[in-house]
Amino acid sequence: MGALRRRGAYVRQSKLTLTAGYAALLLISALFIIPFVWLLRSSLMDLSQIFTMPPEWIPTPFHWDNFHRALTILPFGTFFTNTLIIVVSVIVGTVVTSSIAAFGFSRIPWKGRDTVFGILMSSMMLPAAVTLIPSFLGWQMLGFYDTYYPLIVPAYFGGGIFNIFLLRQFYLTIPRDFDEAAFVDGATYLQIYMRIIMPLSRSAIIVVALFSFLGSWNDFMGPLIYLKSDSLFTLALGLQMFQGSYTAQWDLLMAASAAVVLPCVIVFLIGQRYFLEGITLTGLKG
């Protein structure tokens, strides 16, 4: 009887802990979802309804025309094309160069490899603000100010140490028996990279592509610093144009913001399975 009572108490304690955990997760989730819900409801409201107190969570009536007005009052078609050019170029450069660099740091033995990788990892502790002005001056001296080169070219030189780190950790989980068998058959490092490592690293590659997409699509600081011409503006800079010095068209800004955020949500929902798988596997081996 004593054992049964202890078991019953343990089961009740487990259920209580599980319930408390789910309640905490729901609360935290609500903190992240509420701003998105506010964005959606504001995008369907008239300007006079957005800041009424107490807040109205359901628009009455629904102003669907906000989206049409927001996307036509400014050249968002041009902004979308500009953003797409940058995003596609950055994704290609990041995936190709970071995967090659990670292959060199994980599968090819060479003297000082781990030391060099450690030095590169230490660069992650360097705040971006420290290199902001030197980078701007360098690109300006090269004559690339007001062009897309400062936003695209860095992706073709390693793709960022964080992406290299993710792929390197994933490559380390792939058995080296594959490499040895390929060497026996006369394969080179390039053939191993192309025919063995890349096909087996699909989930990790998708994670890097997702990070690159989200980073480039939502990048505001880079275009703000390096772009001057309105014809080169990205979506992030286009949203800023709804805010003037003294007033802001909040209804149109919220509608345009919802339209800009939608591709990010769709891409994440499509790739979330690979995202979770890639993030999980990259931490299995150091």
TrEMBL record:
Compartments where located: Cell membrane
Organism for this UniProt entry: Cohnella nanjingensis
Positions of transmembrane segments: 20-40, 84-105, 117-142, 148-167, 204-227, 247-270
Chain coiled-coil ranges: none
Protein name per its UniProtKB record: Carbohydrate ABC transporter permease
Protein's membrane topology: Multi-pass membrane protein
Domain of life assignment: Bacteria
Pfam hit, one: BPD_transp_1
Keywords: Cell membrane, Membrane, Transmembrane, Transmembrane helix, Transport
Domain ABC transmembrane type-1: 80-271
Gene Ontology BP terms: transmembrane transport
Cellular compartments per GO CC: plasma membrane
Region forming the signal peptide: none
